[in-house]
Design brief:
- The chain has 110 residues and is mainly β.
- It has no helices and ten strands.
- Helix content is 0%, strand content 45%.
- The chain is globular and about 40 Å long.
- It starts with a strand and ends with a strand.
- The model has no long low-confidence stretch (mean pLDDT 97).
- InterPro entries: Phage_VT1-Sakai_H0018.
């Protein structure tokens, strides 16, 4: 699990995955970060959040986040990070997060 919905009004888009998707999974489509709110079985039509919500997300523990800082998805590590190189923009930090800490708040805006 990488993301837990906290609040907001997410924009949902249709998605039919090629493999099972679990609620909280981050799905990268066309260089955009999407978040599953519910389980979607392989080959079945479901929906992914495309922005508009605030999520508690798994982050690189050894990073501090400043409120409003750009946050990226590192698909290899399956963690959110402040490092832009080779990662996909996911949104902005919705609050400061300490170093060390395993989670942070993400305002999903892309």
């Amino acid at each position: 699990m990488s993301a837990t919905f906290k609040h907001g009004r997410p924009l949902m888009i249709d998605h039919t995955p090629g493999s099972d998707v679990t609620a909280g999974d981050v799905v990268e489509l066309a260089a955009c970060v999407r978040i599953a709110h519910s389980d979607i079985p392989s080959g079945q039509l479901g929906a992914l959040a495309s922005g508009g919500g605030v999520y508690e997300v798994d982050k690189v523990s050894a990073q501090a986040w400043a409120d409003g800082e750009s946050i990226y998805w590192d698909d290899s590590a399956e963690l959110f990070t402040t490092v832009s190189t080779d990662n996909t923009l996911a949104g902005k930090a919705a609050a400061a997060a300490a170093n060390p800490s395993d989670t942070g708040l993400l305002q999903h805006i892309v």
